[in-house]
């Protein structure tokens, strides 16, 4: 049918009506789409609201599964609980140590949480069997010998000590200026006794884990036991074990709590268990005497800056993989680097290597080393320079006897 026309005009009523209907149909579609979108949004908000209104779950750690299927967990809020398991939880994942979520009333496990590392573990250096041995350390003959007897041997052949009834020291404290090989010694001890090396830094307890120091000390030792045999190396122990005149501020009380926990653990474990503690400090003078009492860190080892002979050995170690030209005289280099630490010598070797690279040379020459010595030694200021006219043995002897005892009674 043709559209009706209004008399005397061009107005086509039907066409306009059709156009209007199409427009309305489009509008209906738009509104339907909008309604669907709003419904989705509403659902999302409802879900958010549900989340806000639902009580939080409690994290817990599985301790054991009872024969009747119930589970003993240690809740993060404190007590150990005996709980049931919701039917949709995979029971095969409920192994001791698993992290689970229990409902607010603490009556049932509702979910097994994915394995997650405590953030503190990420901050720690954990090396399963470091590949370092005493051969990678120059000098320090006496220290190596003492560490062998007091840490490596009890770990490798505990029955020797048991039979003789000799108790190895529980903890060894290495002290001396920075960069002279304390960490390296501890790593080598772990490497040679095929133990896991776990390094924690004292100052991090104070700065990073405020309020959690004591818990983390416990966690560190729990990890050490899990990965035993292991060596726990506490670097910068002075940060948690410095003597204090008063413990007024809450920060100091917190440090004190961390220290007390460490002492409690040291007191509590049997020295023949296969976890050993080695600590290191540059500031033995400020240590709390409590830490040095027998049964705690009862073996003190001074790690001195290298003397002439030790410097030659350290140069040899750090240039072992380098292609050296014939004129390189390590003995001469050792003689012009008096006061340099092991770390300085490593830096010198690296700098010499770079200098040769810059020249695009095929070998590292003596001139590269002389340039590197100049550069590194000028840059460093070493407050710890020791007289090195005494031999290493004399130094070792001196350090391992009366001086140590006098340091112990601070
Ligand atoms: P800090 O107190 O600063 O932690 P540290 O005494 O623990 O110092 P290390 O970390 O053991 O020092 O040494 C730093 C680096 O210096 C090591 O990685 C190593 O390469 C080198 N170094 C130090 N001493 C020696 C040594 N006796 N023989 C070979 N290398 C050494």
Describe the protein in words.
This protein has helices spanning 13-53, 119-123, 141-156, 158-164, 182-192, 202-207, 213-226, 238-241, 250-268, 308-318, 330-335, 342-358, 366-379, 392-400, 402-408, and strands at residues 58-65, 71-75, 80-85, 99-102, 108-112, 125-128, 171-175, 196-201, 230-235, 275-281, 299-302. The chain is built from 15 helices and eleven strands. With 410 residues, the protein is an alpha/beta fold. A hairpin with a 5-residue loop joins strand 4 (99-102) and strand 5. Bound molecules: adenosine-5'-triphosphate. Residues 137-140, 178-184, 235, 280, 282, 306, 314, 317, 342-343, 346 line the site of adenosine-5'-triphosphate.
Our count of helices gives 15
- Alpha carbon gap, first and last residue: 114 Å
Mean pLDDT score, rounded? 81
Looking at how many chains there are and whether they match, the oligomeric state comes to single chain
Profile the largest sheet: 6 strands, mixed
The general outline is: flat
Gyration radius over CA: 34 Å
Poorly predicted segments: 383-410
Helix and strand content put the structural class at: alpha/beta
Brief account:
This protein is α/β, with parallel strands linked by helices and 410 residues long.
Notable features of this structure?
binds adenosine-5'-triphosphate, 410 residues, 11 strands, flat, alpha/beta, single chain, five-stranded mixed beta barrel
Set out the fold topology.
Layout lengths: L12 H41 L4 E8 L5 E5 L4 E6 L13 E4 L5 E5 L6 H5 L1 E4 L12 H16 L1 H7 L6 E5 L6 H11 L3 E6 H6 L5 H14 L3 E6 L2 H4 L8 H19 L6 E7 L17 E4 L5 H11 L11 H6 L6 H17 L7 H14 L12 H9 L1 H7 L2
Helix pairs in contact: 3-4, 3-5, 7-9, 10-12, 12-13
Bound molecules: adenosine-5'-triphosphate.
The site of adenosine-5'-triphosphate has 20 residues, from helix 5, helix 10 and helix 12.
């Amino acid at each position: 049918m043709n559209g009706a026309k209004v008399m005397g005009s061009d107005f086509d009523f039907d066409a306009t009506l059709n156009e209007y209907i199409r427009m309305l149909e489009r509008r209906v579609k738009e509104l339907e789409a909008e309604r669907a979108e709003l419904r989705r949004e509403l659902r999302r908000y409802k879900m958010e609201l549900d989340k806000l209104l639902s009580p939080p779950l409690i994290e817990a750690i599985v301790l054991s599964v009872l024969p009747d299927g119930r589970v003993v967990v240690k809740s993060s809020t404190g007590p150990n609980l005996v709980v049931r398991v919701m039917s949709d939880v995979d029971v095969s994942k409920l192994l001791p140590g698993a992290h689970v979520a229990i409902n607010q009333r603490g009556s049932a496990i509702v979910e097994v949480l994915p394995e997650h590392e405590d953030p503190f573990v990420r901050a720690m250096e954990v090396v399963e069997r470091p590949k370092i041995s005493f051969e990678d350390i120059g000098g320090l003959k006496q220290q190596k010998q003492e560490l062998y007897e007091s840490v490596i041997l009890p770990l490798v052949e505990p029955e020797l000590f048991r039979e003789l009834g000799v108790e190895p020291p529980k903890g060894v404290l290495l002290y001396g200026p920075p960069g002279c090989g304390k960490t390296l010694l501890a790593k080598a001890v772990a490497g040679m006794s095929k133990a896991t090396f776990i390094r924690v830094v004292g100052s991090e307890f104070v700065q990073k884990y405020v309020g959690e120091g004591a818990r983390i000390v416990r966690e560190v030792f729990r990890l050490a036991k899990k990965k035993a045999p292991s060596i726990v190396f506490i670097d910068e122990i002075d940060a948690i074990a410095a003597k204090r005149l008063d413990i007024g501020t809450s920060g100091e009380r917190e440090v004190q709590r961390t220290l007390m926990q460490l002492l409690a653990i040291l007191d509590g474990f049997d020295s023949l268990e296969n976890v050993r503690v080695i600590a290191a400090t540059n500031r033995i003078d400020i240590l709390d005497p409590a830490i040095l009492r027998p049964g705690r860190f009862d073996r003190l080892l001074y790690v001195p800056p290298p003397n002439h002979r030790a410097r030659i050995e350290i140069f040899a170690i750090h240039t072992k993989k380098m292609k050296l030209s014939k004129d390189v005289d390590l003995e001469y280099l050792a003689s012009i680097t008096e006061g340099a630490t092991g770390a300085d010598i490593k830096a010198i070797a690296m700098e010499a290597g770079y200098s040769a690279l810059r020249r695009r040379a095929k070998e590292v020459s003596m001139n590269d080393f002389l340039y590197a010595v100049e550069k590194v030694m000028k840059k460093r200021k070493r407050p710890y320079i020791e007289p090195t006219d005494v031999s290493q043995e004399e130094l070792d002897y001196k350090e391992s006897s009366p001086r140590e005892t006098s340091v112990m009674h601070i």
